[in-house]
Specification:
This protein has 6 helices and 4 strands. It is of the alpha+beta class. The chain has one domain: NADH Oxidase. Helix 2 runs antiparallel to helix 4. The radius of gyration is 16 Å and the shape is globular. The structure holds flavin mononucleotide. Flavin mononucleotide binds next to strand 3. Keywords: Flavoprotein, FMN, Oxidoreductase. Its cofactor is FMN. InterPro entries: Nitroreductase, Nitroreductase-like.
């Protein structure tokens, strides 16, 4: 199978990670894949915040846990050492589309580079909190941004299988 097709078909959401750190070059490559995503009108509005610092990663995990309503002790990042958040300016009307595509590209890039990844929701809620805004400031990001989504990445400690594709979802006019 063509390599890109293979990645598209075989990438899976990983929900169990090894503690092993992800080399910085790989994190940068994944972020690059997000920066190269198509964007509405080519405006390149999405911004990407990659967190490898454990303290900040844990803080984001806890804010995400609270936003999801889970009990203390649950890690919505499943032990992954890296979290990457995607945000777009609040006044950009194609933010959800642009940001989602950037996340999709980064998930595929992680898979292609031998890592596992998973989309993690609730970026909107997390970056609406004062603590979330402080984290953005720490990254050097000021202004009004809407959280679109996060992905976590790390070395996979499981090999999930794809659910069968539901029939009747593709239509062709020949
Ligand atoms: C918009 C969106 C939000 C998601 N949020 C979460 C999440 O918060 N936590 C999680 O474990 N998976 C999340 N996922 C991953 C999906 O559950 C996963 O893609 C789906 O079950 C299919 O599995 P696959 O990615 O292995 O094909 C999300 C996916 C999308 C597209």
């Amino acid at each position: 199978m063509n390599e890109v097709m293979d990645a598209l078909v075989n990438r899976r959401s990983v929900r169990k990670y090894k503690a092993e750190a992800v080399p910085e070059e790989l994190v940068k490559e994944i972020v690059e894949a997000g920066l190269y995503a198509p964007s509405g009108m080519g405006y390149q509005k999405p911004v990407i915040v990659a967190v490898t610092d454990k303290e900040t990663r844990d803080e984001l995990s806890d804010l995400n846990r609270k936003a999801g309503g889970w009990k203390e002790g649950f890690d919505p990042f499943y032990g992954a050492p890296v979290v990457i958040s995607v945000l777009t300016p609040k006044d950009w009307d194609k933010g959800v589309e642009d940001g989602s595509l950037a996340i999709g590209q980064m998930l595929l890039a992680a898979h292609a580079l031998g890592l596992g990844g998973c989309w993690i929701h609730r970026a909107k809620e997390v970056f609406e909190t004062e603590e979330g805004k402080e984290i953005l400031k720490k990254a050097g990001l000021e202004g009004e941004y809407l959280g679109i989504g996060n992905l976590v990445i790390g070395y996979a400690d499981q090999q999930p299988k794809a659910a069968p594709r539901k029939a009747g979802r593709a239509f062709f006019i020949k």
